[in-house]
Amino acid sequence: MNQQDFLGLSSQQPNRVVSFPASQSLHASTASVTGAISTGLPQLDEAVRPPSPEDVPGRAGDAGSKGIPCGHVTEVFGPPGVGKTSLALSTATSALQEGSKVIWIDTGSPLPKVRLTSMLKKSLDAKPSDTSEDLTKNLIYFRAKSLPHLLALLFRPPKCFPPEDAKLLIIDSVSAPFPSYFPNPSELKSRLSQSGVTDKAQTQWLMNRKWNVTSDLGNQLVKLAATHRLAVLLVNQTHTRIKGLPRATLCPFLGGGTWENSIYTRIVIFRDFLPQDEENSKGLRFAEVMKRAGRTLSLRLDENIVPFTIETGGLYGADKTHPPAILPPAILPQEPAGPVEPALSASQRKRKVDEIADSQDEDSDGEFGWVEGDDGGLSDEN
Question: Is the pTM of this model over 0.70?
């Protein structure tokens, strides 16, 4: 029987060399990597889904493509205690509900089993035949005590890892083991000088070793996601950057060119206390999609910012009538009207934000100008 495979080649002529467009080959290689896993927030699932040509006004999109995409790497970052693990738990709950296996790798923070059980019980109210204990059997848990343990698990995995029916891989958090092995540049230089390491080539290699490990890790995660059709969800921590920015900014701890290329979707979670409703907005979080389908979103649109709250039973979307206040980088909030303070003395002088050193490696005692009005407290020597 003459059968056609996906590329349209005849099975009766295996030795025939047939040329076909590269776009058709790309479509064939990615056709099997379909589907997505819900985050538990329908608005966020819609924001994460990349737009397709089939999307037209008045027509509902494919529900199976909304959420964390399978076959790719998704990164969630934000300050401590903002809800990154809760979002990972909600995504794991959605995958367990579908009967898929979930791999959870923790690098320091134990898996909150009580919260996961509460989310499963809440989601199973419509399915009394299933129990949370039955679903948690599909959860495969690993504890990576250090960075070498994490790298060994991913680069030299044990047999049958990941399982064939696994659909989601979560690492909480992927950046936690790095600080103990890769100190900041100033501390590393101090250690090298104390150890007597003076060779410039060796020093440069040690300075770049963190980025080499980060690049290899990113490439391996992309390989696991593509070959096993996994939705890889990474929880990344943050650090503060000042140099080259108008103000102190929180950025993902792990970064770099290769790491950026490995991230297909990026979500940042943050808090924003609304001035008009500060009392009721204390428990409000915002999840913003910053990267989608491998492309960074340069414009901050309200449709990509999803407010939500965290409760015992899971994540719940909030009203979007009060979006977070987004100030342009060049505009700073003005001081409230009030009495004018007296000028500062020479011992109380202030430096501008852009004159503060970015790290301990920079000289913070150099020249800097006076803030306007500070000369009022200086005595006239003439």
Answer: yes
